[in-house]
Amino acid sequence: MTFSTGRCTFILLLGASLLSSCGSLLGGDERADLFRFGVADLTPVPAAQGALPGPSVSLLRSRFPQEIEGDRILTTRGARALYVKNARWVAPVPDLFTQALVREFASRSPDVRLADAKGATKASYALQIVIERFEANYAVDGDGKTPPTVIIEGDATFFDLTDRHAVASSRFSVEEPASTNTTSGIVAAFDRGVVRYTEQLTDWSLGVQQRHAGAGS
Predict the structure, then answer these.
(1) Can you give the pLDDT of all 217 residues of the chain as single tens digits?
(2) Range of the domain at 182
(3) E strand intervals along the chain
(4) Is 67 helix (H, G, I), strand (E, B) or coil?
């Protein structure tokens, strides 16, 4: 049993009987197939010839609740929760999420570089991300056979590193229905949800950075 401080909800990881109506999709696993998310577009973004290095944003360590910071695929139904059987992410969720966000920054604004604290030593800004929900949610009053909805929810705070104060903060939430109640259907919904979430987060961050830079010029 673990406790999620972000949701103030007990997450019970007790066995397949909690969500038995979902059939063999949920429960423990012996052999796991590996999946990833946030890799819809891997086309590299070319740098402009002769362009000067743009501003850097330092991505602080992202915060995830204990039940979703590993490589298991979490499903919930009310206060009950189980991991998808025989399926795991190819890497821990925070790592895949960070990679997806870095790619989104590079795609939507190549002149602004998002990097971790070590890679952005001369950054003027910093971005802190807190993810509270990253799950496939089944309706409480459903029959367990209806495809779940992927929910990604959290907060972001943008800092000015010249005086280390918070410039802006915002909350983001995405709901992406799965097309089928299968592992592949759920994974695809996570992928679409992450794309939507990182797009919103990137556009907001770039907007904050541009407004703040303009105000200080």
Answers:
(1) 333 333 333 333 333 333 444 545 665 556 789 999 987 554 544 444 444 456 789 999 899 999 999 999 999 999 899 999 999 999 999 999 999 999 999 998 888 889 886 766 678 899 999 999 999 999 998 787 899 999 999 999 999 988 889 999 999 999 999 999 999 999 999 999 999 999 999 999 999 988 877 665 5
(2) 54-71+87-216
(3) 2-4, 9-11, 33-35, 56-59, 72-77, 80-89, 113-116, 125-137, 149-160, 165-177
(4) helix
CA distance 209 to 146: 42
DSSP state of 101: H
The bridge status of strand 113-116 relative to strand 56-59 is parallel
Full-model pTM = 0.80
Asked whether residue 18 is assigned to any structural domain, the reply reads no
CATH of the domain at 121: 3.40.50.10610
Q: What is each CA distance from 190 to 126, 148, 184, in whole angstroms?
A: 26, 11, 10
Tally of domains within the chain: 1
**Position 45 in a domain:** no
Q: Which 8-state DSSP code applies to residue 64? A: -
Q: 129 lies in a domain?
A: yes
